Amino acid sequence: MIGVNTDADAHVSIDPRHPIPEDDTVFKDILVPLLMGDIPSAALRAGCALARISGGHVTALVGVSQTVPIAETWAYYPAGVYESMRDCAAATTQAMADATADCLKSESVPFQIRQSQEFWSTPAEICIEPARQSDLVVIGAIAGDQREARERLASSVLVSSGRPMLVVPASYNSAPGFGKAVIAWKSSRESARALHDAMPWLQRMSSVDLLIVDEGARSSYAQSLDAMLIGHLERNQVGAQLVRRSAPAAQVGAIIDIHAQEVGADLLVAGGYSHSRLREQVLGGATRFLMEHASVPTLLSH
Fold first, then answer.
1. What's the predicted TM-score (pTM) here?
2. Which whole-number Å values give the CA distances from 50 to 77, 93, 142, 299, in the listed order?
3. What's the distance, CA 150 to chain centroid?
4. How do residues 85-105 score in pLDDT, each as one tens digit?
């Protein structure tokens, strides 16, 4: 059964205080994966809105995973079982493609439906190669059923695709705006990647907060690095103000989201952290919190 996470009358509204300029340098090729049996409508709408802004194109990746946990047991099943599973997966994929096309036809953007035939691959394996051929991957926040599977998909694509990922809350129904951005900064490879992946978007923001959350006072050397980063942003036509907050490590994600809410941010930019555990990628605590609970669209890069 195909689920659509939206009201029938939901639409994208544009804030008249922050008109969106049409621009051809933001994100031209946008991928929205639909691999978990439902249509993340907020993510789909946000992807389409970004495509309109940049004169870009949306690819909806539709597929079904029929992975078998223990490959060695395949030999014990009759061939007909796999033929039946494949037929079922193909029919489900076609139904998903038809439903997604119906959603996209009203969005007035160039789009294509890419149907995966890799039924024996995991959702992450299905998604990684198309993601590498895109400028931006747009997903819905991790919520609802299959939470662990959704997290595995998001973390694997974030880490392995080399592309930025925009996580859109399910309740979000505004167009991506150019008013206020918050950069959640940490001196790390992941934060640097996110900052520069988001630079074309940040350059069009009315105001930007460079938010640093740490557990205590920063050394004079760290403060000098903060000032250097502000200068780097200014040389890239991004006017940013430095904001510092203190919090224990376990609360960093929540503090970042609270600040984004307080300032009415249109966009949150953060490094996406992950580590390996038993051959799987596991999200870091703050990254997981933002993927599950962020109240505004959040651009993550690894």
1. 0.86
2. 46, 26, 21, 13
3. 12
4. 888 989 999 999 999 999 999
Residue with tokens 């493609």: 97
Query: In this structure, are residues 80 and 27 in contact, taking their beta carbons and an 8 Å threshold?
Result: no
What is the domain class of 180-301 according to CATH?
Answer: alpha beta
- Answer whether 238's CB lies under 8 Å from 210's CB: no
Homologous superfamily, domain 20-168:
HUPs (3.40.50.620)
**Which residue ranges does the chain devote to CATH 3.40.50.620?**
20-168, 180-301
Whole-angstrom Cα distance, residue 57 to residue 127? 17
| pLDDT, tens digit (0-9, with 9 covering 90-100), for 176-206 | 789 999 999 999 999 999 999 999 999 999 9
